[in-house]
C-alpha cells in the first residue's frame, strides 16, 4: 500500500465528495431559473441573468453559477441513435453547448438539471438508467453543476419500509440512485458540482457528504415567511452535518419574490448564509430592487458563508421564545452564533409579531469572555457599534434579524 492509500485508509468514513480542484468545498453561489421563470426558461433569459450577475456586482461578490432548471429539453424522448436528451431547439437555438459557452465567455459557470427517475418533475426525459450517457453529455456541453431531482421514481426503486432510527439509510435504494449518478459524474474528465435534490428523504444528511456536494433537506421553498421559517427550523436539528465539501441545502433563495418584506428578506438571506447553505438566487434580476440587491451583496454574511478556514455553520446558543427547543414552524431558535476568520458572528431573529429588545450577551455566546470588551460591527449597516462591554441591546423589528460581527478586544 502506498503512503497515500495508507493515509486515505486512516481517514474517517464520513469522507465527502472532495474534488481535486476544490469545487464544492464551500457552499455554491449562483442563480437558477426556477423560482423566477419555472418552466418558461430559454437562452435569452439565461444570458440576460448572466449579464446582470456581472453588471449588478454579483459576480465580483462571488456568485458564479448560472443554472438551468427543469424544462430545457424536448419532451418526446431521447435521440434514437445517441440516446442523448435533446435540448429544445426553440428555447435553446444554439443548444445547451451554445449557452454554456456564452456563459463561460463571461467568466461564469453553468448548471443543468435532471431527475433520478424516468421523467423530470415537469415530465421531460430524465436520467435513471442513462446516468453515464447523461453525465458524459453534460460534460461534453461544458456543464459545471448538476441539480438532480427526485420525480418519477420507478416502482422497483422505492425504499423498503424504514425500520426506525436504526435503519442505515445509506443502504437505501434512494441513496443508491444518487450514488449511480455520482459515479457517472466523477468518471467524467470535467468537474461537475453535484447537488442532490431529493427533498430530505431517506435521511439524506447521513449519506449526503459521501454522495454529493450539497443535498436538499426539505420540500420546495415558497416565497412566504411560513415556508422560510419552517425550512429554517428543520435545519436546526441537522446543522452538524454541514462542513467543508458537504452542505445541507434548505433550497434556493426567494429574495425578490412573493410578498417577503424587506425585514423578512433580510432574515431569509442572513439565516441561509449562516447555515452555510448554497446561496442560489432565484429571481428576475432585471426587477431586483436596490435594497434586495444590497442584501445579496452583504459582504459580512457572504464572508461567513464562504470562510475558507471555518467550515461549520452557526448554531443556536439560546432558543429564545421557543423554550421547548423542538420543531416549531413559527418560532424557531432565535439566538445564533458562529466562528469565522473575522471574529464571532451573532444573529438575533425576532420571531414575534412586534419589535422587541434582544440582547447579545457575551456571557451566553460560546467562545467569548463575558465582559469583553469587544469591538463590534453591525453587519447590515457596516457601521461600528463601538467598543462594547458585556453585551449589546438591539431593537429588532418583527421577523427581522440583527447581525453583528464581534471582532476583537478593545479598550473602553
Ligand atoms: C464531509 O467530507 C469532507 C471531506 O472529506 C470533510 O472535510 C467534512 O468534515 C465532512 N463533513 C462532515 C459533516 O463530516
Ligand atoms: C425515435 O423513434 C421513434 C420511433 O420511430 C419516434 O417515434 C420518435 O419520434 C423518435 N425520437 C426522436 C427524438 O427522434
Ligand atoms: C425567451 O423568452 C422571452 C420572453 O418570453 C422572449 O422575449 C425571448 O425571445 C425568448 N428567447 C428565445 C431564444 O426563445
Ligand atoms: C429496477 O429495474 C431496472 C430495469 O430493469 C434495473 O436496471 C434496476 O436495477 C432495478 N432497480 C432495482 C433497485 O432493483
Ligand atoms: C451503513 O452502510 C454502509 C454501506 O454498507 C456502511 O459503509 C456504513 O458503515 C454503515 N453505517 C453504519 C452506521 O452502520
Ligand atoms: C474529455 O473527454 C472528452 C470526451 O471523451 C474528450 O473529447 C476530451 O479530449 C477530454 N478532455 C481532456 C482534457 O481529457
Ligand atoms: C450530528 O449529531 C447527531 C445527534 O447528536 C449525531 O448522531 C451525528 O452523528 C452527528 N453527525 C455528525 C456528522 O457530526
Ligand atoms: C402573502 O402573505 C400572506 C400572509 O400574509 C399569505 O397568505 C399569501 O399566501 C402570501 N402570498 C404569496 C404569493 O406568497
Ligand atoms: C475579513 O478579514 C480579512 C483580513 O483582515 C479582510 O481582508 C476581509 O476583507 C475581511 N472581510 C470582511 C467581510 O470583513
Ligand atoms: C411555538 O412557540 C411559540 C412561542 O413559544 C408558542 O406560543 C407556540 O405554541 C409554539 N407552537 C407549537 C406548535 O408548539
Automatic annotation (TrEMBL):
<dbReference type="Pfam" id="PF17801">
    <property type="entry name" value="Melibiase_C"/>
</dbReference>
<keyword id="KW-0732">Signal</keyword>
<feature type="domain" description="Alpha galactosidase C-terminal">
    <location>
        <begin position="331"/>
        <end position="405"/>
    </location>
</feature>
<keyword id="KW-0325">Glycoprotein</keyword>
<dbReference type="GO" id="GO:0004557">
    <property type="term" value="F:alpha-galactosidase activity"/>
</dbReference>
<dbReference type="GO" id="GO:0005576">
    <property type="term" value="C:extracellular region"/>
</dbReference>
<dbReference type="InterPro" id="IPR017853">
    <property type="entry name" value="GH"/>
</dbReference>
<dbReference type="InterPro" id="IPR041233">
    <property type="entry name" value="Melibiase_C"/>
</dbReference>
<dbReference type="Pfam" id="PF16499">
    <property type="entry name" value="Melibiase_2"/>
</dbReference>
<keyword id="KW-0326">Glycosidase</keyword>
<keyword id="KW-0378">Hydrolase</keyword>
<comment type="function">
    <text>Hydrolyzes a variety of simple alpha-D-galactoside as well as more complex molecules such as oligosaccharides and polysaccharides.</text>
</comment>
<protein>
    <recommendedName>
        <fullName>Alpha-galactosidase</fullName>
        <ecNumber>3.2.1.22</ecNumber>
    </recommendedName>
</protein>
<dbReference type="GO" id="GO:0005975">
    <property type="term" value="P:carbohydrate metabolic process"/>
</dbReference>
<dbReference type="InterPro" id="IPR000111">
    <property type="entry name" value="Glyco_hydro_27/36_CS"/>
</dbReference>
<feature type="signal peptide">
    <location>
        <begin position="1"/>
        <end position="18"/>
    </location>
</feature>
<dbReference type="InterPro" id="IPR002241">
    <property type="entry name" value="Glyco_hydro_27"/>
</dbReference>
<keyword id="KW-0964">Secreted</keyword>
<dbReference type="InterPro" id="IPR013780">
    <property type="entry name" value="Glyco_hydro_b"/>
</dbReference>
<comment type="similarity">
    <text>Belongs to the glycosyl hydrolase 27 family.</text>
</comment>
<dbReference type="InterPro" id="IPR013785">
    <property type="entry name" value="Aldolase_TIM"/>
</dbReference>
<keyword id="KW-1015">Disulfide bond</keyword>
